[in-house]
Amino acid sequence: MLRPDDLYEIVDESVATGPAATPKVLVHSLDGFMDAGQAGRVTADHLLEVLDHRLLARFDIDLLHDYRARRPEVTFAEDRFTDYTPPHLSLHLVTDDAGVDFLLLEGAEPDNHWDRFAGAVRQLIERYNVTLTVGVHGIPMGVPHTRPLGLTAHATRPELVTRSNIWDGEMVLPASAGTMLQVRLGEAGKDAMGFAVHVPHYLAENRFPGAALALVHAISAATGLLLPSKALLDEAAVTGRLVDEQVDASEDASAVVKALETQYDAAAGSVSRKSLLADNGTPSAEELGAEVEQFLADLNRDDDK
Length: 305
Known about the structure:
- It is built from eight helices and ten strands.
- Helix 1 packs across helix 5 and helix 5 runs antiparallel to helix 6.
- The longest helix has 19 residues.
């Protein structure tokens, strides 16, 4: 029978472990579930690109991944297959701009052995004296790209949530390995939290660096880590100009964005309303759906040129 420690191997034994080790934060971004704008993936890639890091542990992806459901890519070159890119799930030790170490768990979301995976992460948390776990991803929302991006925050303790969310009450959602991990950590008395950045739904299938920028800022604010963001800021500015140009060139797209701006501004101006959609006579997200889908299709065609 598999145990949690059968799911991973430690590849760097030189890092201090146990209760005497320096307390650390663990950030995780798992590909496979919802990640609008590639927000979580871009966040993880950015941190690995701009900060010093080294590999600490590697998960056995063959035990965790469903290859038929999410097939890796391979290149066909004239008469042969090359460049097979396998999925991975890796734990890195990363150093922020102030010299503070933290952990980054990134790669493919496990398809199998979720509870064993949660047990494995808990073992790694205890091994490296992690005091707070933070998950990040993006969700599509009926919001315009011309306004500040919102965030939904969640945590195992109310004291960890320092921002107000846009809705009250409960809803039942499909689980992910990341959300299940937060539940299991909370049950074990461990502090865990997460941020879902609100990505304009007409850009949800595209790389949207502004969403990753919002997540980097949220992680920094919640943990005190000094995380660089200039590269994301520059990329977000370029992407914003390209989207603006495409919106301005299309009457339908302009109408969609203006209606979303009206809804956003009406909701932001109301201190009593806790909904992003205002009841002010503007089209609903469903009524805008056809125009949004067409706009997204146009964006994808332009990206392929």
